[in-house]
What does this fold into?
Amino acid sequence: MGEAKRRGTPQQRAEQARARLEALRPAQLVCGACKTAFTTFDALPAPGMRGIDAVFGGQCPNCGNDVVVFKGEPQAVADAMLAYEKMMGADAKLGYQSRDGRHVPFEPGGEKTPGESDK
Ligand SMILES: [Zn+2]
It folds into this structure.
């Protein structure tokens, strides 16, 4: 009997995916609001986000903000953060991992469209 081809069971594939995420996982997240660094966070699914390798998120133990970081191509990360911000509103603190592994908080600085107040 010939050795069956190793396709990898779903379990193996899940493990590979997890190993890949573990490799991408930053040592810590840093809260964009209060700059607290913390290490309790999870990998989040990033379905259909092109150029995004991984998303990690957790709750700041100090101020309770949701902290989400994206890893991937810089342009894709920027797009993802903007999309996420729109989706979540201003509550989530976003950031990304720089190439040397540092956490960089995303600070949307005054780019909001100026006064569209027609009331
Ligand atoms: Zn915080």
In short: The CA atoms of residues 51 and 94 lie 17 Å apart. The pocket of zinc ion is lined by residues 31, 33-34, 36, 60, 62-63, 65 (CB under 6 Å). The beta strands are 29-30, 37-38, 42-44, 52-59, 66-72, 92-97, 103-105.
